[in-house]
Amino acid sequence: MSKKISIALLASASYLAVLHPAAAIEATEPPVVYADQMLQRPTPVRTASADRSAMGGGFIEFLFSDGQSGRRYQPQPSYEPRRALLPPMDPQQSMRQEDANEVARPAFDPKYAKQAVEYHGKEGAGTIVIDTPNKFLFLVQGDGRALRYGIGVGRPGFTWSGVKTISAKKEWPAWTPPPEMLARRPDLPRHMEGGPQNPLGARAMYLGSSLYRIHGSNEPWTIGTNVSSGCIRMRNEDVIDLYGRVNVGAKVVVL
């Protein structure tokens, strides 16, 4: 009886080899996997020796191992889910991120917009008065009136008070951070020519021989805050307006 079964199995194997010669080859040789198939076909892994003995080896193992002797397929994640883990290539992403940053920034408070107000101080017309605690700059007009602008002032530890005069005026000034600032911020550039990205903004009015200036800024959300290293910061449109109204030698009182 066992001899008949063996003959039958050999006959079946021979018949399969005639009809499917590739299958007979795969029964003894590992399959060739090309590079362009690696993301589409599962990666074969060897079965444990216990599995091989249970299957009987040889032709029986071939029948129960998807046509590959000694190997079974283990499904691998497809390419599409893995591609979802890659960084997006959308060229508009950076623009959308910038828009999100703009939304996150606080809106400009209208109370810091330029406006005519009453002023009853003792300073004469043409004097600039810096109200540091309230973040306002007054240009005295006389007759109990003044133009008031919102400003950004020094951070804690960088505020100051005193009387200065405007010693120079410059449009789109260049900026060279002083050594004291570079010591605190070594990442800053050593020099920057004037322009829209320059932190001194569109105009600068230099205060005496000090390092302080009244200057512009393209960051309106910082107006009304303690933000600088002692300079008086204004919106670009406001500093342009003030620049056209004062002359070199004008008195500046910082409270």
Summarize the structure.
This protein is of the alpha+beta class and 255 residues long. The chain is built from eight helices and 13 strands. The strands form three sheets. It has a nine-stranded mixed sheet with strand order 3-6-5-4-13-8-9-10-12, covered by helices on one side. A two-stranded antiparallel sheet has the order 1-2. A two-stranded parallel sheet has the order 7-11.
According to CATH, the homologous superfamily of the largest domain is: L,D-transpeptidase catalytic domain-like
* Biggest sheet strand line-up: 3-6-5-4-13-8-9-10-12
Structural class: alpha+beta
Order of helices and strands: HHEHHEHHEEEEEEHEEEEHE
Shape: globular
Give the C-alpha Rg.
40 Å
How many structural domains are formed by the residues?
2
Approximately how much helix is present in the residues? Answer: 25-40%
Strand content: 15-25%
Mean pLDDT: 75
Here the CATH topology of the largest domain equals L,D-transpeptidase catalytic domain-like
Output the CATH class name of the largest domain.
Answer: Mainly Beta
Give a short account of the largest sheet: 9 strands, mixed
Weakly predicted, low-confidence segments: 7-11, 13-30, 32-80
Total count of strands: 13
Distance between the termini: 115 Å
Number of helices: 8
CATH arch. level architecture of the largest domain: Beta Barrel
Which tags fit this structure?
single chain, alpha+beta, L,D-transpeptidase catalytic domain-like, 2 domains, two-stranded antiparallel sheet, globular
